[in-house]
């Protein structure tokens, strides 16, 4: 894809600093708390736990590390299966194979683009019959939209399977008034550079099980036993967040609510300008839920729009605009060849349809209105041309 030079690049989602980060970083430098752990880490954990309304939070080096620790705490090992949403970033499922366990993928449903309760129900029923229930279910909240948590929690309760809520993309979202990421045994957030708030890299594991989070901190610092000398009876990891980066996180958390408002405004502007165009359908927001709209996502019906998703992506790229296809479902990834998928219904694999027709538009909270209007103008231009020709 050749970009036309001279036009300023518009990114999908770039870091957006508040200006206050320097204050916390300076504090870390002034007190020489450069080493991992320290007052910023403790404060960031407490402030985030308060924000989402959960018992405790453990700051780690990435969202992926948080998922890995959650699976480890649930005693996932070789020979186990773990159910996971298929329509997601690979990081949701990679930790399953770190532990030698087998992922089984669950399809999406149209209402939320997230895990289909219908498919999950079938998968759990079959697993129970085969006397091989999964050790955990990893539920992803795609692009900020919560999954149908009532249905999913109720199904998992019935079979007594713990939930890990992958809320890497949905920090700041709510479902029936409750913070996204607080519905499972464990919740996971990411502060990677492209997420709604960032520490440049980092993650958080949250839970109401305080003992489990103590154990998470232990495992994340090389599983060091109580002793003057370095004593180890278990295998651990080096997974804690640095005190400098936690300082960035504290300042970012202060503006999280603003960032959600900004991303929702971006979604609303796209919606206002583009939703009337035939063949365009925006990602829905489930009634009773409130999405942070991390990324504005939509599908293009090629028949109606007269143009394919990929043609539209190419036109945007020519204008130096970074848009992306929706995640490629994990059951289609070569890495996971041979794994099972539970489809939404027999002749309907929703995640594949979303992958074929879906795209994400630039949604960064620091994008200007002018930049967004440039994207909108490009899309209108391309789409109207093709519709006229039809
Ligand atoms: C970003 C992301 C992760 C991983 O987070 P990192 O901090 O990058 O390791 C996990 N799951 C989903 C759905 C993500 O989008």
From TrEMBL:
Family listed: Belongs to the DegT/DnrJ/EryC1 family.
InterPro entries given in the database record: DegT/StrS_aminotransferase, PyrdxlP-dep_Trfase, PyrdxlP-dep_Trfase_major, PyrdxlP-dep_Trfase_small
Statement: the UniProt record of this protein carries the keyword Transferase: yes
PANTHER family with a match to the protein in the record: DTDP-4-AMINO-4,6-DIDEOXYGALACTOSE TRANSAMINASE, TRANSAMINASE
Keywords carried by this UniProt record: Aminotransferase, Pyridoxal phosphate, Transferase
SUPFAM superfamilies linked to this entry: PLP-dependent transferases (SSF53383)
UniProt GO molecular function: transaminase activity
Any Pfam family matching the protein: DegT_DnrJ_EryC1
Descriptive protein name: Aminotransferase class I/II-fold pyridoxal phosphate-dependent enzyme
Signal peptide bounds: none
């Amino acid at each position: 894809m050749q970009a036309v030079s001279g036009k300023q690049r518009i990114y999908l989602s770039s870091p957006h600093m508040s200006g206050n980060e320097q204050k916390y970083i300076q504090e870390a430098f002034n007190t020489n708390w450069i080493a991992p752990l320290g007052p910023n880490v403790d404060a960031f954990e407490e402030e985030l736990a308060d924000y989402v309304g959960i018992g405790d939070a453990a700051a780690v080096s990435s969202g992926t590390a948080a998922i890995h620790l959650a699976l480890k705490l649930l005693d996932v090992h070789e020979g186990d299966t773990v159910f996971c949403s298929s329509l997601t970033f690979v990081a949701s499922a990679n930790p399953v194979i770190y532990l030698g366990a087998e992922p089984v993928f669950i399809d999406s449903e149209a209402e939320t683009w997230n895990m289909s309760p219908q498919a999950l129900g079938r998968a759990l029923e079959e697993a129970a019959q085969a006397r091989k229930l999964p050790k955990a279910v990893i539920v992803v909240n795609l692009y900020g939209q919560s999954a149908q948590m009532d249905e999913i929690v109720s199904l998992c309760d019935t079979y007594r399977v713990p939930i890990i809520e992958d809320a890497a993309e949905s920090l700041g979202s709510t479902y029936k008034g409750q913070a996204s990421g607080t519905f499972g045994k464990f919740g996971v957030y990411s502060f990677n550079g492209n997420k709604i708030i960032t520490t440049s890299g980092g993650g958080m594991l949250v839970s109401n099980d305080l003992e489990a989070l103590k154990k998470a901190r232990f495992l994340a610092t090389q599983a060091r036993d109580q002793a003057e000398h370095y004593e180890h009876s278990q295998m651990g990891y080096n997974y804690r967040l640095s005190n400098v980066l936690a300082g960035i996180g504290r300042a970012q958390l202060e503006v999280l609510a603003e960032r959600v408002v900004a991303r929702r405004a971006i979604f609303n502007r796209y919606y206002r300008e583009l939703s009337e165009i035939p063949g365009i359908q925006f990602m829905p927001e489930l009634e009773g839920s409130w999405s942070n709209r991390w990324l504005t996502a939509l599908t293009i019906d090629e028949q109606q729009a007269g143009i394919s998703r990929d043609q539209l992506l190419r036109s945007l790229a020519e204008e130096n605009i970074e848009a992306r296809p929706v995640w490629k479902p994990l059951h289609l990834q070569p890495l996971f060849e041979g794994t099972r998928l539970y489809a939404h219904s027999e002749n309907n694999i929703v995640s594949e349809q979303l992958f074929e027709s879906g795209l994400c538009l630039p949604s960064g909270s620091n994008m200007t209105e002018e930049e967004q209007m440039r994207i909108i103008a490009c899309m209108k231009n391309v789409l109207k041309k093709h519709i006229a020709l039809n």
